[in-house]
Write the structure tokens for this entry.
Amino acid sequence: MKIRSVLSAAVLAVATTLASTQAFAQETFTLKLAETWGPNFPIFGDTTKNFAERVEKMSDGRLKIRIDSANKHKSPLGVFDMVKAGQYDMGHSASYYWKGKVPNTLFFTSMPFGMNAIEQYAWFYHGGGMELMEEVYEPHNMLSFPGGNTGVQMGGWFREEIKSLDDLDGLKMRIPGFQGEVFAEVGVRPTNIAPGELYTALERNTIDAVEWVGPALDLRLGFQQIADYYYTGWHEPATELQFLINKKVWDKLPADLQEIMKVAMRTGSYDMLVHSQHANAEAWATIKEEYPNVQIKQFPKEIFQAMYDANKKLLKEAADEGEQAARIVKSQEEYLEQSRAYTDISERAYLNTMSEVE
Ligand code: CA
């Protein structure tokens, strides 16, 4: 009797545990994601779609992501506020867009003359970058994760060749953010114009030059038809998008779903980097073939040096404004220095070798 009752109690305990595990396993979540991009925006938009698909498959349908593009929520640059307020559970955007609200969000996308993509990922995941980003977003009740990299962006389309600093004086160029501020220091008049109006602005000489992303996304906007000079980049060497998540929403997810999210976000960001490389190479082949007017140019050394000095000056000003900014700038500078010394004897040495035998 006694043994039997102990046994049945044990059976009951196991059955209860199983039942609760099953109930737990069946609990499903749907997160609403607002992205800065319009519907079917290539590469950036593919990143969120693939992320959502992967999360749903890996969680066996327990976690679904519903994506609203900019045409739906009507607020491409309101993603930070919407996720912070809980109007959306998560977002896909770029950290440097929030610089006007929270200045130190600037540092987590890409900095002029800064790290390239592999160096920056190494900084995020092994060099303290994630911890600094968490610290910046924490007071806003959000988590931010790397959300896809464009690789080195092109320096922009110019209708006239730029031969000296004098040629930049008064030049009207679409170039946003901190990069625009660096350009302004050397005489450029930076403006920000909505993507849909860029082609017309360049065609009608409202602007003299335009910076967008790289061949794959630039080709769609048609700049190659009206500008001959395509400059190499310096200003966004590793533009990293971001996944933003409301912290309360994150905390409600079971640990396994949080881990699935982390894996899917990290895979998504890597995927976007390789997708960018692939699509840019294809688009560049098309431009070379179909638009022989297009010439690749690099700014002369005096311009690079002036912009490099301007960048240093602006970074110092940013660091002087607060202890946190100073720590982030220092972390990035020190990491870049150490990482670049290795890049020099590996990637750069290899590419130099290849250019010698071509
Ligand atoms: Ca850009």
The pocket of calcium ion is lined by residues 153, 211-213, 236 (CB under 6 Å). The chain has two domains: 27-148+239-290+322-358, 153-235+292-321. The chain is about 55% helix and 15% strand. The chain has a mean pLDDT of 94.
